[in-house]
Amino acid sequence: MNHYSNGNWKSSNGDPTDTKNFVGSTSHYPPEKNFLEVFDFPEMIEDYLFELEIRNYSHNTIKTYRSIINNFYNFLKGEKELNDERQVLRGFKRYIRYLKREKKVSQNYIYLVTVVVKKFFEFGGINVLEEVKTPKRTKSLPKSLNEDEVKSLITALDNYSPVDSASSTSELVKLRNKLILALLYSSGLRVSELVTLQTNSVDLNERTIRIRGKGEKDRIVLFDDATKGMMEEFLQKRSCDSEYIFVNRRGNHLTPRYVQMMIKDYARVAGIKKKVTPHILRHSFATHLLKNGVDIRAIQQLLGHSNLSTTQIYTSVDMQTLKNVYDRAKLL
């Protein structure tokens, strides 16, 4: 019997003894019970998320999976008929339709929901969604900033004087934020990697940082001389002795949300009309490296991608660069 079920589940042909779709051999399935009464969803959700944590899934990924599964579970609780697997399958399809029509979510989110719920059901030994095909993802080129926009963003507050011009704290925050922007761009860091960056992972002499990325995989990233100078100045001036480089007033490392909002403010001051996020700086890093002739496999290593196909999606080249490469090839 399935660990999460309270008895056998009724198959689509109405025969409660059919175990084709579910484990268990109870021959007296109580017809008054529906799917959510038979399976202990809350326990299964916690066990599944615990399994993901053991398998070194990132905190953000686990948070996303929890949200997706809980939202689906809450939707199912509003369904009236879930008395066999065919009705559960229809419930899932109605949920997808609801997300499309009512929530207006993207095709990529539909893809993610389908993948996550199918994996969750497989974990619980529930084979209802076997026939559901995973929808295609849309592959749009990521937005990126040009070199001048990146420079404007990083130097946005260089000529700004705080109200309290004598405040060393304000100047230190400006230096810290400028260093954050420089690192996100010059090293291609994920924001989750940046906020948890520790002092012992940085080698100033070699201008390298050891990063523990997705899937607990280590990689080495580089930073330029200008960023090195900012890093040395910031570490010398900051007063706390936290293991984390970027901390708030309470001594805790910064949150991704803080960095996102800070970048949004800097983009506004710089007069950049495009949407600017930490991930767009990562896109820009990869795009500019490729534009300047760096081999895509080297970029793959710097970004920490397991598959080259992922790097190819990240690296969009502007049309003028593409034309120049095309003309140099002299096909005719």
Report on the structure:
- It is built from 14 helices and 3 strands.
- With 332 residues, it is mainly alpha-helical.
- The chain folds into 2 domains: 1-138, no CATH class; 147-329, Orthogonal Bundle (hpI Integrase, Chain A).
- A 3-stranded antiparallel β-sheet has the order 1-2-3.
- The radius of gyration is 26 Å and the shape is globular.
- The termini are far apart.
- The model is unreliable at 14-29 (pLDDT under 50).
List the SSEs and their pairings:
Layout: H1 35-38, H2 41-54, H3 59-76, H4 85-101, H5 107-123, H6 147-154, H7 168-187, H8 191-195, E1 202-203, E2 208-212, E3 218-222, H9 225-237, H10 256-270, H11 278-291, H12 296-303, H13 308-314, H14 319-329
Antiparallel strand pairs: 1-2, 2-3
Helix pairs in contact: 2-3, 3-5, 6-10, 7-9, 7-11, 12-13
Keywords:
about 325 residues; hpI Integrase, Chain A; mainly alpha; 3 strands
| Sheet having the most strands | 3 strands, antiparallel
What would CATH call the class of the largest domain?
Answer: Mainly Alpha
Instruction: Walk across the major sheet and give the strand order.
Output: 1-2-3
In which range does the helix fraction lie? 40-55%
The CATH homologous superfamily of the largest domain: Intergrase catalytic core
Q: Evaluate the radius of gyration.
A: 26 Å
Strand content: under 5%
The ordered H/E elements are: HHHHHHHHEEEHHHHHH
Distance between the termini: 69 Å
Structural class: mainly alpha
Mean pLDDT metric: 85
The name of the CATH topology of the largest domain is hpI Integrase, Chain A
**CATH architecture title of the largest domain:** Orthogonal Bundle
